[in-house]
Amino acid sequence: MHILSVDQFEQSWLEQLFNRADELREMDHDKKGRQDLAALHVGKQLCSLFYEPSTRTRLSFETAAVKLGMGVVSTENAREFSSAAKGETIEDTVKVLNEYHYDAIVLRHHETGAARQAADVSRSPIINAGDGKGEHPTQALLDMYTIYRKFGRLDNLTVIMGGDLANGRTVRSLSKLLSRGKGNLLIFVSIPELQIGADIKEVLTANKTEFREVSNLEEVAALADVVYWTRLQKERLDPGVKITHNFVIDGAVLPLLKQDMIIMHPLPRVDEITTEVDDDPRAQYFEQAGNGLYVRMALIDALVTT
Amino acid sequence: MHILSVDQFEQSWLEQLFNRADELREMDHDKKGRQDLAALHVGKQLCSLFYEPSTRTRLSFETAAVKLGMGVVSTENAREFSSAAKGETIEDTVKVLNEYHYDAIVLRHHETGAARQAADVSRSPIINAGDGKGEHPTQALLDMYTIYRKFGRLDNLTVIMGGDLANGRTVRSLSKLLSRGKGNLLIFVSIPELQIGADIKEVLTANKTEFREVSNLEEVAALADVVYWTRLQKERLDPGVKITHNFVIDGAVLPLLKQDMIIMHPLPRVDEITTEVDDDPRAQYFEQAGNGLYVRMALIDALVTT
Amino acid sequence: MHILSVDQFEQSWLEQLFNRADELREMDHDKKGRQDLAALHVGKQLCSLFYEPSTRTRLSFETAAVKLGMGVVSTENAREFSSAAKGETIEDTVKVLNEYHYDAIVLRHHETGAARQAADVSRSPIINAGDGKGEHPTQALLDMYTIYRKFGRLDNLTVIMGGDLANGRTVRSLSKLLSRGKGNLLIFVSIPELQIGADIKEVLTANKTEFREVSNLEEVAALADVVYWTRLQKERLDPGVKITHNFVIDGAVLPLLKQDMIIMHPLPRVDEITTEVDDDPRAQYFEQAGNGLYVRMALIDALVTT
């Protein structure tokens, strides 16, 4: 099995994966469990094949594999693989790596569709760790896992997403996944220029998922089970674009939110969530990043277990 | 023992190495064997010391060591080792690394002769993974191993080598090694400007190895047990040089070849072998790259076993 | 516990650490011991977080962890961690890594004080592997360990330090540590422009450690238990500065030194110690680098053992 796109994730498969992630986390937080983990996949190897650096994603995958007892080989300049000849195809590179019998290959590529091309010729499972403007499915997994850990379900949730929704890959993937659940309400908070794309709205409509578009967090804040916040980069906008509302979550926003909700962010954050929010128990963005480790462990575990 | 040059390989040592590579391959393709491999050299360490990136070679060596249960530490920018002082010698660097008691050091260097300099002061075995325009002996090993796996012998073979023979390091090393066998016939296919060097021809003559130089693959294709093809880069030639024959192996060439032969290429390939050839069972270039893994495993295994 | 500064090292803690380093070295030099080492910290992980490359330091730490059986994940371009958003704080990065439950994080940073900032928010032990012009405490540890291995004590020693004392981080740290011992005499050999800083002299005075400043090695050479030599880079000096004495240790200096002493250098060296000195048994700079491995093993062992 290859992991290429959020489109391939069934709800039941997700829940199974998240439960396994919980188990692996528990083992990782216990001295004896750590040693058991390290014995789990001895003799298996993961290849980290990054055509562009993405330190955060790479460390997360490699840590996952190492904790599972696997051997890891790694490159962040896989483009060099083909430099001498100015253009080895991704297919040829993967065919070479197949001969090394890796148990999984984590692929990060600068071109959209590269993961699919790789998977088409690969005997080893390919995990797409981001391909250009395409997919980054394990980011979506960790977002869903974070929600699942908090609420124990992936439906009947009100999720506010804010910031640059037009370009945000994480927000787009999460919206698609949430539309698989029943009774979810998605509220998109942005300026008109950066609102969620028409393609996503079509998916939501097709899946009968209710959604609203607003420009002001304050008017909807009280509804949220989840606020998923991203950066709205003013410096990228045309000078004429007027930002009428506040797109920063700070101490003044906290009282507007329910007690039993969570604030998420894909990180890194700059100033769109102020550090005064960090100590609030509802702020879960660092835990969310940690969930990325455990969900990747569960994913690798599933792929290499035969 | 250091591995510096193809000149040091005895025929019997090669056969022993190749048989060990077969054994390790078999273990690697079996779940239980994998675990046994991973227990083989626990507590031993390999240092990957690359003064210039060569991702393909580095991953192959590191995967080999990891599969054997060794610890690996790695750098691709070893030049930085000496940058602060603008010029630590390779001898000093190796003397420092000797103090770390590595079981093997894989050295890639941009200067010819660097591997020999390193070996002269090293207690840890040095494996030359390419030193400038000098040697790259493990590439030659994997080429020989690929031939040995197919034919079970390293003599009485007709080997056609084509492309840029004047500059091709792999072709030059392979020619030298094949001249050690008895009854081999080497046929060099290129344009006069890129034919095999006089120094290699002297070695062949000294070793009483028959060879021919031709400019057209088609006229000799039917003789080959092995076709070893490389790229002839037209863009590097003087504009006046005329290329009279086809230097591409494509579907039209396949019918000219024997059934019981193999097509090899050091990879990466660009268009000098078309992808329509890939599915022909005689096309063995991807398997050849995989052989690089197993022959390096056998080599490391031999060096670190005491 | 975090390892941030030489100021935190008590004499008794140092001696305990050095004795443990001796034990680990002995294990590393024995086949069975190697395997026992590799089983020591199975299931524990070290993260090598370098915001700038420092291959020498990184390899030393990673080799230490690997020999102890730990898993290692590594980056040399941690700045990229925050590049997308132009400025994730070190605190946020560390908070993410905390979620991965590393047993230790080795941090190299380009900004003075970064290690302290990291430690302030870190649950995992932070080991400062150099922060800008700040501290590099494990370099000081290996220097002290080298002296301790030779003399079995850290007091009643005459230590000559020479070269660029004004800017040398190693010399400054070593001076501070030696001032903790009783009866040490420090002799600083340099030109006036590059003599040891007033801040260090204040520490020595406060600790009642005797010191002298001279400009000529020859006049004091016979006194030394230790000569710690560094490079005096003439090309960095103003053209008007006159260098009146020889700042090179060569064959002519050796007869001036006691038989029972050691010559140290933090490496890399260029020409401030000539290679003819290397074979003299008093030359201990390569062994000193090796001591860096074992003292780091002892340090990691102490931090991850709970």
What topology does this entry show?
Three copies of one chain form a homotrimer.
Chain A: H1 11-28, H2 31-40, E1 45-50, H3 55-67, E2 71-75, H4 90-98, E3 104-109, H5 114-121, E4 126-131, H6 137-151, E5 158-162, H7 169-178, E6 185-189, H8 198-206, E7 210-214, H9 217-220, E8 226-229, E9 262-264, H10 285-304
Parallel strand pairs in A: 1-2, 1-3, 3-4, 5-6, 5-8, 6-7, 8-9
Can you walk me through this structure?
The structure is a homotrimer of 306-residue chains. Chain A has 2 domains: 6-135 and 290-304, Rossmann fold (3-Layer(aba) Sandwich); 137-286, Rossmann fold (3-Layer(aba) Sandwich), CATH 3.40.50.1370. In chain A, the strands form 2 sheets. In chain A, strands 7-6-5-8-9 form a 5-stranded parallel beta sheet, covered by helices on one side. In chain A, strand 6, helix 8 (198-206) and strand 7 (210-214) form a beta-alpha-beta unit. Chain A is an alpha/beta fold and 306 residues long. Chain A has helices at residues 11-28, 31-40, 55-67, 90-98, 114-121, 137-151, 169-178, 198-206, 217-220, 285-304; strands at residues 45-50, 71-75, 104-109, 126-131, 158-162, 185-189, 210-214, 226-229, 262-264. Helix content of chain A is 38%, strand content 15%. Chain A contains 10 helices and 9 strands. The mean pLDDT of chain A is 94. In chain A, helix 3 crosses helix 10 (285-304) and helix 4 packs across helix 5 (114-121). The A-B interface holds A 42-45, 47, 71-75, 77-78, 80-82, 84-88, 92-93, 95-102, 306 and B 28-29, 31, 34-38, 53-56, 58-60, 62-63, 66-67, 72, 74, 76, 231, 267-270, 278, 286-287, 289-291, 293.
